[in-house]
């Protein structure tokens, strides 16, 4: 069987919780609570679609609220560029491409040292 016939489907947990890709823990909790209350099955008796949405919200929250799971998701999740607008794409990768720590480098790496020396010269 050709695996291209049934490609895996990926869920964008940030979109499910209506969050920016650099959302804080506080914002994750707030949006989760708001959406969980809105889509709770008790408010939509017998509506299978609402129950499904509620389950997706819980799944997204269980990943994004756990720092280890969130890091794993951010590093290995679905990054199909065609699914995102440019601001969404840049926001999603901001932590990895715009900070030294995102690249696994210490703050005082050999790349930042010349900049620090230049700043010291300017101050004197």
TrEMBL record:
Start and end residues of each J domain: 12-77
Domain of life: Eukaryota
InterPro entries: DnaJ_domain, DnaJ_domain_CS, J_dom_sf
Coiled coil: none
CDD domains: DnaJ
Name the UniProt record assigns to this protein: DnAJ-like protein
Native organism: Salvia divinorum
